[in-house]
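Changelog note: in this version the structure field was regenerated for every chain. One regenerated record is shown below for reference.
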Amino acid sequence: MTTPPAHDTRLERILGVPLAIDAMRQWPQSGEMINGRERIVEVESHFEGLRLAVGRRYACGDTLVVEWSTDYGDGRVYRNVTVAELRDGYAIRVTDYWGEPFEAPAWRESLADTLDMPPRGVWPAAEVLQDDDESPGESNSGPT
């Protein structure tokens, strides 16, 4: 097996594995699919000023799940989950889910506890997000 290329794309840095040349990226919320590593790179180039951090990565066989946070430059931190299918160590199909931030409704106060969200935990806070050209780092918990 040949040595995989360095993690050059934002998605590769998030996943911690390289993308296959024929990788597919799916976005169910917008109903889009981006086919091929080259097009994925082109789409990424349109998100200037983006900051992100990886909370944790889980690997189970040929499936990888990553929890991560991002700020698109407006100060709002989105919580995300990315699921990747792997083949020979390369991501071949990637599905991203983004959670837009929102305030919990008042009616749930008596039913819900406060979720512990330390700044460098599973859901990285705004102050620890890194500029797009920096590596989002290694996962901080769970097997990879």
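Spot check on this record: DSSP finds two helices and seven strands in the chain. The two ends are 20 Å apart (CA to CA).
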